[in-house]
C-alpha cells in the first residue's frame, strides 16, 4: 500500500484533526459556542474529547436500548414497545435540532444518547415482532424487512446528506432532526396493525382475534395449531431473564450461535471496507468532490442486495445464503489485500480494488447483514426469545463499540494486512454455520428447537459412550 494512505488517513484514525464535512460542521459549531462562552477557542484535545463523546453516545445508547428492549416487549407487548419507543426518537430530534439555535452543544450529546436508545430498542423488538406475526412460509422474507429498511435508511441518509440537499453547513441541524420523520410515520401507521398473536396467546392468554386479522379466517387454523403446540410445551414456564437463559443448558448451542454470529456481524470487516472506500475511490481517479456520490453507490449496493436476499431466502434457505456470504467475504478479503498491496503497479489495480469494495458489500448484504437477525428470532421459543434478543443485541452493540475502538490500532499496525484478520473471522463463521447451524426454512419454532435438542443429545451420547438414545425435551 502506498505510504500516502497512512500519511493522509492516520490523523483520522487517531481522531485528531481529520474529519468528514459533517463532523467539521459540528466541530465548528462547538468551537463557535465555546468562544462565545469563554472568549477563547477550544483546545484541540477538548474538541476531540467532545466530538468523541458525541459519536460514542450513540453506541452507549444502543447498548442501553437492547438491555431494556426485551423486558419492555414482555411488559408492553411488541407493538406497544415500538409505539412507546418513538418518544426517544422525537425527543432526540428536538434536542439535536435545537442545539444550534440555542448554542448548547450539550444537547447533541443527550440527543445522540436518546437516538441510540431508540435504535437499540427498535433493533431488538422490531425483528421480534415481524418474526412472530409472519406465517412460517414467509417468515424469512418478512424478517429481511429489518435489513432492507436499515440499508434503505442508510442510503436515504447518504442521499439527503449530499450538498445539493441538506449537506451544506447551515443545514446540519435540520439533517440531524430528520430522525423524527420515521417516528411520526410509525405513530400514524402502526396503531392500525395488530399485536403479535404469539405474544397475546402464549404470554397473555388472549383470544386469537389478531391471528384472524393477520392471516384471515381461512388460513389461520394452521398458525393457530402451531401456536397452541408451542403454548402447550410452555405451560407454567415464564419468560426468562437473560441471566436465566445463560444458565439454561437446553439452549446453550442456540445461545452460542447467536452470540458468535452477532459478534461476527460487526467484526467481519464491513466497517473496514467502508473506511477504505474513500481512499480506493480516490486512487481510481474519482474527483474528490464526486466521492460522496460513489459512497451513495455503496449504500445503494447494500440496499439492493438486501432486497435480493429477501427474494431468495425462502427458496435457497438461510444456511446457504449466510454461509455463502461469509465464504465470498473471505475471498474478497484475500483479493482486497492483494490489490491494496500492489496499488501502484498498474492503472487497472485501483479499479480492481473498487470492485472488491462493492463485492464485499454485496456478499455482506447477501447473508450476514440480514439473516443474522432472522436466526435470532428462529432459534428460540416464545419464553426465551426476548432474553435472547437482549443478549444478542448487547453482543452486537459491544462488538460495534469494540471494533471502533481497536480498528485504528489494527490499521496503523497492519495496514492493508488487517484484512487477513477479517479473513480469519469470516472463514471461521462460514465453517461454524456449516457444521452447527441447522436449516430453519419452513420449520416452526418448536421444530427448530427440537433440531438443536436432538443435536445436543447426539453429542451427549457420543461423549458419555452410552448406546441409548436420549429423549429430547421441550421447554
From TrEMBL:
Its main location: membrane. The keyword Protein biosynthesis does not apply. InterPro entries: GLUT, MFS_dom, MFS_sugar_transport-like, MFS_trans_sf, Sugar/inositol_transpt, Sugar_transporter_CS. Keywords: Cell membrane, Membrane, Sugar transport, Transmembrane, Transmembrane helix, Transport. Signal peptide: none annotated. GO terms for molecular function: D-glucose transmembrane transporter activity; fructose transmembrane transporter activity. It catalyses: D-fructose(out) = D-fructose(in). Belongs to the major facilitator superfamily. Sugar transporter (TC 2.A.1.1) family. Glucose transporter subfamily. This is Solute carrier family 2, facilitated glucose transporter member 5. It comes from Channa argus (Northern snakehead).
Amino acid at each position: 500500500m502506498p505510504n500516502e494512505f497512512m500519511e493522509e488517513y492516520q490523523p483520522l484514525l487517531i481522531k485528531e484533526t481529520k474529519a468528514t464535512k459533517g463532523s467539521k460542521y459540528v466541530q465548528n459549531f462547538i468551537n463557535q459556542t465555546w468562544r462565545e462562552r469563554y472568549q477563547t477557542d477550544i483546545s484541540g484535545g477538548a474538541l476531540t474529547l467532545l466530538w468523541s463523546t458525541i459519536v460514542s453516545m450513540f453506541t452507549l445508547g444502543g447498548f442501553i436500548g437492547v438491555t431494556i428492549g426485551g423486558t419492555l416487549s414482555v411488559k408492553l407487548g411488541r407493538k406497544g414497545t415500538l409505539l412507546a419507543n418513538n418518544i426517544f426518537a422525537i425527543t432526540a430530534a428536538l434536542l439535536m435540532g435545537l442545539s444550534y439555535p440555542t448554542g448548547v452543544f450539550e444537547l447533541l450529546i443527550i440527543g445522540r444518547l436518546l437516538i441510540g436508545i431508540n435504535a437499540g430498542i427498535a433493533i431488538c423488538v422490531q425483528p421480534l415482532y415481524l418474526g412472530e406475526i409472519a406465517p412460517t412460509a414467509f417468515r424469512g422474507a418478512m424478517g429481511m424487512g429489518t435489513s432492507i429498511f436499515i440499508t434503505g435508511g442508510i442510503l436515504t441518509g447518504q442521499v439527503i446528506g449530499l450538498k445539493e440537499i441538506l449537506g451544506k453547513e447551515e443545514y446540519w441541524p435540520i439533517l440531524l432532526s430528520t430522525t423524527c420523520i420515521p417516528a411520526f410515520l410509525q405513530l400514524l401507521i402502526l396503531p392500525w396493525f395488530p399485536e403479535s398473536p404469539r405474544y397475546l396467546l402464549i404470554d397473555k392468554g388472549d383470544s386469537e382475534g389478531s391471528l384472524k386479522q393477520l392471516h384471515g379466517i381461512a388460513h389461520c387454523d394452521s398458525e393457530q395449531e402451531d401456536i397452541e403446540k408451542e403454548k402447550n410445551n410452555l405451560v407454567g414456564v415464564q419468560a426468562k431473564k437473560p441471566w436465566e437463559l445463560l444458565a439454561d443448558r437446553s439452549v446453550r448451542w442456540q445461545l452460542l450461535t447467536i452470540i458468535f454470529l452477532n459478534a461476527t456481524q460487526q467484526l467481519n470487516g464491513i466497517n473496514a471496507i467502508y473506511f477504505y472506500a474513500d481512499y480506493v475511490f480516490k486512487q481510481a481517479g474519482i474527483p474528490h468532490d464526486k466521492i460522496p456520490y460513489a459512497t451513495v453507490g455503496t449504500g445503494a449496493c447494500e440496499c439492493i442486495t438486501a432486497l435480493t436476499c429477501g427474494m431468495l431466502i425462502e427458496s435457497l434457505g438461510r444456511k446457504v445464503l449466510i454461509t455463502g456470504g461469509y465464504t465470498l467475504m473471505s475471498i474478497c478479503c484475500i483479493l482486497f489485500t492483494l490489490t491494496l498491496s500492489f496499488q501502484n503497479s498498474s492503472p487497472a489495480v485501483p479499479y480492481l480494488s473498487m470492485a472488491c469494495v462493492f463485492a464485499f458489500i454485496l456478499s455482506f448484504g447477501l447473508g450476514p447483514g440480514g439473516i443474522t437477525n432472522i436466526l435470532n428470532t428462529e432459534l428460540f421459543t416464545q419464553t426465551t426469545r426476548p432474553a435472547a434478543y437482549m443478549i444478542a443485541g448487547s453482543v452486537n452493540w459491544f462488538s460495534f463499540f469494540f471494533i471502533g475502538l481497536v480498528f485504528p490500532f489494527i490499521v496503523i499496525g497492519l495496514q492493508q494486512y488487517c484484512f487477513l484478520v477479517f479473513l480469519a473471522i469470516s472463514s471461521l463463521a462460514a465453517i461454524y454455520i456449516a457444521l452447527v447451524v441447522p436449516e430453519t426454512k419452513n420449520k416452526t419454532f418448536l421444530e427448530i428447537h427440537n433440531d438443536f435438542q436432538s443435536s445436543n443429545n447426539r453429542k451427549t451420547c457420543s461423549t458419555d459412550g452410552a448406546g441409548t438414545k436420549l429423549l429430547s425435551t421441550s421447554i
